[in-house]
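Shapes recur. Our protein:

. . .
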Amino acid sequence: MSEIRVANAPVSFGAFEATGGPEVPAAEDTLEAIASGGYEGTELGPAGYLGDRRALAANLERHALALTGAYVPIAFAEPHDLTELDLVLDLFEAAGATDARPVLADAGPRGETDWARFSGGVDIAAEHARARGFAPVFHHHAETRVETVAEIELVLELTDVSLLLDSGHLALAGGDPVGALRDWRSRIDYMHLKDVRAAAIGRPLEEVWRTGGFCELGTGDVDLEGCLAELEQSGYSGWIVVEQDVFPGDFSAAREAQARNRRWLADRGI
């Protein structure tokens, strides 16, 4: 598994689209914690959090971190507004992050879906990213129109976009991450490695965040050992992004948790 590189993300420290305000840790503290924890890269977090177009490259370079990707929610079933996608791609370009992945996700909420229109929206966003030189991936996500195994398979059938597999979000939706890695392997080229407690299944996502349903690697109920074995067997090459979604709180505890998560992977040869 020597081709695998391990990153983390601001979401593990409480900085993501659903949070904000003074309780969110400073970007410099988050970058320092990720780097000192032994990670090689980071996702972007909310656009601008890690720095604007003038500062982002220097901020990353100061901590020797690669920029691996960024979450971009888009209302694919509505008129297709790609403003946020362009904002993210502008930041990628400013950082010189030519291999960073725009992570396309439905903006939700769940509901009746015109799948032809939805898939057309995914195709438009994916082609826009490609035209600007970036390879997109699609992120299935709790409480969006693409959450369940059947919904993910529809996106795979109706579009040609690569898949980001999120072990935690798939488990929340009742799916089997190990089986998904096997069944969808030809389309998966980016991964969020996330653990979740079985007691969180069926609960509202905000409650999962607030109650620590996303937990440290190896302490929840996702078969992460099986996921790693499947990645090794399939010859996966690319980024694994460790995510432990939390609301802002005790930064020192989050820092220590992410260091333990990196050691958990290191103990398994990654």
In short: The first helix runs from residue 27 to 36. The beta strands are 4-8, 41-43, 66-74, 101-106, 137-139, 162-166, 188-193, 195-196, 214-215, 238-242. The chain has one domain: 4-266. Residues 4-266 form a domain with the TIM Barrel fold (CATH 3.20.20.150).
